Write the structure tokens for this entry.
Amino acid sequence: MKQRVISGVIIAAVIVCFGLAGGYPLAALMMICSMIGYQELGRAAGFLESGEKINILTGLALGATVIYYTGLMILQSRWGSAPDRLVFASDLFTMMIIVTAFISQMAAYVFTFPKYKAEQVMASFFSFVYAPVLLSFVYRSRALPYGIYMYALVFVCSSVCDTCALAAGVKFGKHKMAPVLSPKKTVEGAIGGVIGSALCALLLSLLAKRLNPEADFGVQFLIIGTCGSLVGMVGDLAASAIKRNHGVKDYGNLIPGHGGIMDRVDSILFTAPLIYILGVFLLGTAKL
């Protein structure tokens, strides 16, 4: 428990410091976490053999990750003052990277046949989208107008939701939400998590309005907080399902008391892209 608390405090400090810094430091952090998370998925899913640090599939995916984040940083430096163009360019670049990564994985499958099974190639491509691409939306949300609030909402809809869901589940929990995947999660806990996230999102909107009087986003933040917390629960359960399918307890042991990177970002991987999408459509892309 002591290790878990200490690690939690360090993680919280890193989240705050890099969130305030934004820009290149945050992008670099997300890139490193993405690469570690992809490797963890590789060991769990079996396209990276036990004791093997890298192979053709993982080398291609890790290379694509470096190119992807480097490209996002270049686009941010080029179009940071024009959010509408930045969103368009970044979305197009993301699509290009995903398609290129898929073709490269299939090329490796074809030219090394029969070294890899089709299931391994599909797992490698899935893991590239699941970790590096989805996690990039933490950085991309921070690059939006009012980005510091979008960034904060990512963690409101994940960490705050988890805390409120746990408290509500302990106090009122009776009906199991996913008895096979997570026996301790209850419907009542989930409701408490959603309510807690929505309220915190609303408080965050009040803070935003106080610091930026033109930022009157109470309704929008309430919608984002509610939707983000719901999707975050799906992300949490999805990560549990993958671990169950592959018979692993934790994705890794990098973080004492918490497991691996993927054990800590499971819900964030789902909330960050949704908050980015909702931020673009509900708040617009007009620069401050």
User: Anything to note?
Assistant: Strands lie at 176-178, 182-186. The chain has one domain: 2-283. DSSP finds ten helices and two strands in the chain.
